[in-house]
Amino acid sequence: MLLLTCPWCGPRDETEYRYGGQAHVPHPEDPSALSDEEWAEYLFFRDNPSGPFAERWCHSVGCRRWFNVVRDTRTYEILAVYTGAAPDSSIGRSGDSSIGAHA
Amino acid sequence: MTTGQPRRLPHGGRIDRDTVLTFTVDDVTYTGHPGDTVASALLANGRIRVGDSMYRGRPRGIMAAWSEEPNALLQIGGDRSEPTVPATTRELVDGLTAATISGVGALDPAADDAVYDKRYAHTDVLVIGAGPAGLAAALSAAASDARVMLVDEQSEPGGSLLASRRETVDGRPALDWVAGAAATLAAAPEVTVLTRTVAVGSYDDNYVLALERRTDHLGAAAPPAMSRERVWHIRARQVVLATGAHERPLVFAGNDRPGVMLAGAVRTYLNRYAVRIGDRVVVATTNDSAYDTVEDLCAAGIDVVAVLDARDVLSRRAYEIESRGGVRVLQTSTVCQTEADPDTGALRAVRVGTLGHDDSVSCWETLPCDLLAVSGGWTPVIHLHTHRRGAQRWDDRWAAFVPDGAVRDQQVAGAAAGAVTLHECLRSGATAGAEAATRAGFPARPLDVDGTDSLAEVDPARALWLVPGDDGGPADWNEHFVDLQRDQTVADVWRATGAGMRSIEHVKRYTSIGTAHDQGRTSGVNTAALVALALDGPGVAEVGTTSHRPPYSPVSFAALAGRERGDLFDPERTTPIHPWHVEHGAVFEVVGQWSRARYYPRRGEDMDAAVDRECRQARTGVAMMDASTLGKIEVTGPDAGEFLNRIYTNAFAKLAVGSARYGVMCTLDGMIFDDGVSVRLAEDRFFMTTTTGGAAGVLDWLEEWLQTEWPDLRVYCTSGTEQWATIAVVGPQARGVVARVAPRLDVSRDAFPFMTFRETTLASGVPARICRISFSGELAYEINVAGWYGLAVWQQVYEAGADLGITPYGTETMHVLRAEKGYPIVGQDTDGTVTPHDAGMSWVVSTRKDFVGRRSLSRPDTRRADRKHLVGVLPADRTTVLPEGTQLVAAGTTLDDRPVPMLGHVTSSYRSAALGRPFGLALIDGGRERIGEVLLAPVGQRLVEVEVAPTVLYDAEGTRRDG
Fold first, then answer.
1. Rounded (to 5) percent helix, strand, coil in chain A
2. Number of neighbours of residue B894 by Cβ within 10 angstroms
3. pLDDT per residue over B59-101, tens digit each?
4. Interface of B with A in 525-584 (CB under 8 A)
5. Chain A contact for B204, CB < 8 A?
6. How do residues B582-616 score in pLDDT, each as one tens digit?
C-alpha cells in the first residue's frame, strides 16, 4: 500500500488514488496527420523502465485532481510529486533519460 | 491446587494455580490453569501424543511451544467450531473442547456470527515483537515524544524471557525488568501496546497488517458485543522488526516420534508452564543454546542422561556445564536413530552416533530416555523483512540466514537480526528504537540497558544438516523427516532433485514442503541445506529459501471481511421514489450499486406475464418508469459546447438552447464508452445524462481530459445524479397525463417538439424540467424534478394517469421496448470492442470534426468488413427465447466439427408482445451483410434456426414518437 502525497490533500493511502499510466504522453495535436503506425504508437505503446518512471495519478476519492509522480519501479520509492511539466533530471536523483520521454 | 496434573512441578511457572480450568480433548477431561496453552496443559497431564501424521499415520507428539508447531493441531469444538488450531498457541479457557486432528480440520458449515472488525492506526514507530529487543526498542523510542506502537503475538510481553530462569537485566531478574518495562509503556500516553496481536503482512511504505485476538482467551466471560478478532491497518513512519528466531530440529532417522521436542520448547514448558515433560532426557545440539535447557533441567532435578554435541571442540559453555559434574557431554556426537514403545509410540531410547568430519556417523550406544531435546540451530524470523523484498545473507558462524541490511525506513533488531546473547538483543533493540524515533523526527537516545545470560561468550554452531541412516543412501531415507506436517522426508527431497528440480521454489512445489499450516517455520532452512547436499554443488547460501509471502500466520476470511458482510458488503443506492416501488411489490435488480425496480408483478403473475402487460400498456396506453438512476452531469462554462463537441462523436457546439441531442462517446481506441442525451440549458450550460452504471466513469473521463489535455478550456463538471429525480411518462396517451401534471406547459406537438425541453412549474407548485426524449420509440416525456420532490411528483403522475390505467414499469420492460427499437445498451450490447459503426450507428459519427477516438476509426482493424456488427435476430420457430450469450454458427455446421466455427453471440434477448415472437440483438461477423440469412443457435441440445434481421424491428419509420 503506497503512501502517495497528493499535492493538494497531503499523504494518503494508495487506495484513494487511480493510476493513470505513463506521464507526459500528450494527445497528438492533429491525429489525422499521423500514420497508422504513429497513431498506434501513441495509443498502445508505453515505456516500461526498471527504475525511475514518471506516471500520472488521480486523487479519485479525494480532490479528484490529476498530478504526476516519479516512482522507482524497482523500489516503489516516490522520488517526486509535481504538477505540470516534467521535472528536470536533478529531481528524483534519476538523471534517467526515460523520464519525460514524450514531454 | 494442581489436581490430575501429574507432570506439573509443585512450584514456578507463569500460571495461576489458584484457578483450575477443566477442558476436554478427544473426549478425555483434563485440568489446567490460566496461563496455560492447551499444549502446556496436555503436557502437564502427561499427554504428549497428538493426532497421527497426515499421510503416513505415524504417531506424533507436541514438538514446539508456539506457532512453529507442526504436529499438535486441534479442531476446536463448541458453538463456533474452528479447524487447524495449534494447541501450542491456543490459550486454555474453562470448558474448552477440542479434538486432535491429522493435518486437516473441517470448516464449520454454519455462518460465523461472531463480530470481527478493523482499525486504522498511524504511528511514528512500530515495534513488532515484545521480547528483549522489542521492549528495549519501544522503551528507547517512547522516551521521546514519538507515537509508538508495540505489537506482540503472545498473551504477555517478554518473548524469549518468558522462558528464562537465571537471566538478568540491569541486575534484576529478567521478568521483573519485563514487568517494569510493560508498566512504563502502559503509562506512556503516546504508546500503544497490543498483545495477542500478530503482524501478518508488511507492505509498501510501512503499511503493516496485524491481527488481534480479543475474546478467545476470555472464554465464557467474553462480552457478547466485543469483536472476536480485529485487523489492524497500521501505517508507520519507522518500523523495528524484533521478531526473534525459531529453533530448527535435527534431521535423523525417526526424528518425528512423540518425545522428540525442540530444546527451547522443553525449556519454555519447564520454566514458563512448570511442566516436567520427561524424567530422563537426552539433549542433542549443534550450538550453545541448548545448554540453558540442560542447566534448567538439572536445576529442576530432572535426569539429563547425556548431551550430544555435534561440535568437535567443547565450547566454553559446554565445558562450563560439564565441569559442574552430573551431566555427561559427548563431543562430535548426535542422535542417529530413535526407538519407540511399540504400544504407545512414545520415545523409549536413542542411539548415539559419532560424527566424522564428512558428516558420516557411526552408531555405538543406546541410551534409554523418555524425552529428546534437539537444537539444530536457530532461524531468524525475517518473514516481514522479506515481504518487502528485504535481502538476506548466509551467516556461516551461526549457520543461519540473517537480514542483509534493512528495508527503507525499517530496522531489524535482536535475534531476528542474528543477535545471540541477551545483551546483544537488548542493545540492538535499544539502538534501533532510538534510531527509529530520531528518523521519525523525535530525537532519542538508546536506553542504557545491560543484560546477562549464560551466553556472555558464544562459540559458533556446527552446521549439521543430515545424520546419515544406517544403510542405503539419502534416496532411501524415508524416516528422516524434514516437514513433519506434510510428512515429507529426505527421500522426498532427493526424489525432487532427482526429477530435475533445482530451484528451492520448485522443490517446494514438487514436495509440498513448507506449504502446510506452519508454512515451513521449522523445515525451510533444513530443506535448503538438503537441496544443496542433493545437488552437490551450490552451498545453502546459493540455494536460498523460498519467498515468504503474507500472511505470516493464518487469518480467517471472517476477520478480513470484518463488518463488511451482509447489508454492509456493498453500498445500496436507492432513488427517492424507492419506497413507492417497495410498497407496490416491485421485484428489484442491482444495476451498478443501484437497486432498481425490475417489474411490478400483480397477483399470480410471473416476470414474463408482468413484462408482457407492462410492454402492452406502454405501446398502447400510458406507462411510467423511475429513471432517476441515470447519471447526470452539469457541464458549465463558456467552452462547454466546444468541450462536448470534442468528447461526443457527433456535433454539439451548435446545438440550440432548449434542444436535446443523443450522443455517443468513444475511448481513444474508437470503441463505444458511454451514451446518453444532453440538453443545452443555456449557451454555457449543458445537462448531460449517462448510463446508470457509467456515471462515475464518465465524470472521471471528462475531468481527465479537462485537467490533463485541455486545461485551457473554461469548463466545469458537476455531478447531479443524486440531485434530480427523473420520471419517464411513456405511451400514446402520455401527452394527456403530462398536460394534467404540468398545466402551464403547452404540450402540443408543435409547441413542444421531440428532442427539446421546457422548464415549467407543475400543478403542485414543483419546478420541473421536462424533456421530450424517448427510449422506447413511443411518445415520451421525462419529468426531472429536485430529488426531494421525486416521490411526490411520481404520485402526482400516477394519480393523473389513473383513469387511463397508467402502469409503472421496470427495467425489464424498458429493455424490451428499447431492444425492439434497436437501441443498444452500452455494456450489454457492447463490450469495449464495438465501434459506433459496428453498432450500426454511423449516423452518430461526425465526418466534419475531430473527436476523441476518431483517428482510431480509420485504423486498418476498425475498417475491416468482417467486424462484428450489431444486428437483430429472430428465432425461426417463433417460440424460443435465446439465452443471452448464446453462440451463433453458420447453417450446415454440426457441433461435431470442433472447434465449432462461431460467428457471434446473442447480447440481448426477450419475448416481444409487439412483435408477437421472441427476438434478440446479436454481434455477428459481418452481420449487416447477413441480414435475411439463417444461422444456427445451439440451445441446450438443440440447434435453433435464427434469422438475421435489422436492429430496428418495431416502427422502423419512427411514426410513433410524436403520439
1. 15, 30, 50
2. 10
3. 999 999 999 999 999 999 987 899 999 999 999 999 999 999 9
4. none
5. yes
6. 999 999 999 989 999 999 999 999 999 999 999 99
pTM: 0.91
Q: What share of chain B is helix, strand, coil (3-state, %, to 5)?
A: 25, 30, 45
User: Measured between CB atoms, which of A3, A26, A30 is closest to B235?
Assistant: A3
CA distance A47 to chain B (A): 18
CB pairs under 8 A between A and B: 55
DSSP structure class, residue B8? B
Long-range contacts of residues B768-774, Cβ cutoff 8 Å, at least 24 apart:
B768/B742, B768/B793, B769/B687, B770/B738, B770/B742, B770/B745, B771/B660, B771/B677, B771/B679, B772/B660, B773/B660, B773/B677, B774/B730, B774/B961
Q: How far does A97 lie from chain B, in Å, by closest CA? A: 22
Tell which A residues from 18 to 47 touch B, by Cβ distance under 8 Å: 18, 20, 26-28, 30-32, 34, 36, 39-40, 43
Partner residues linked to B686 by β-bridges? B635, B680
**Nearest CB to A31: which of B205, B709, B850?**
B850
Contact list in B for residue A27 (CB cut-off 8 A) is 668, 709
Choose among B256, B259, B261, B339: nearest CA to B57.
Answer: B256
Confidence grade of residue A98 (pLDDT, cut at 50, 70, 90): very low
B299-351: per-residue pLDDT in tens?
999 999 999 999 999 999 999 999 998 899 999 999 999 999 999 899 999 99
Q: A88: which DSSP letter?
A: P
A102 compared with B360, residue with greater pLDDT: B360
Q: Cα dihedral angle (B693, B697, B701, B702), rounded to 10 degrees?
A: 60
Tens-digit pLDDT profile for residues B875-922: 999 999 999 999 999 999 888 878 888 999 999 999 999 999 999 999
User: Quick one: average pLDDT of B110-118?
Assistant: 92
Interface test with A, best of B855, B861, B862, B863 (most A CBs within 10 A): B855
Q: What is the mean pLDDT of residues B646-660?
A: 96
* Chain B, nearest residue to A56 by Cα: B708
Instruction: State the DSSP string of B750-770.
Output: TTS-TTBEEEEE-TTS-EEEE
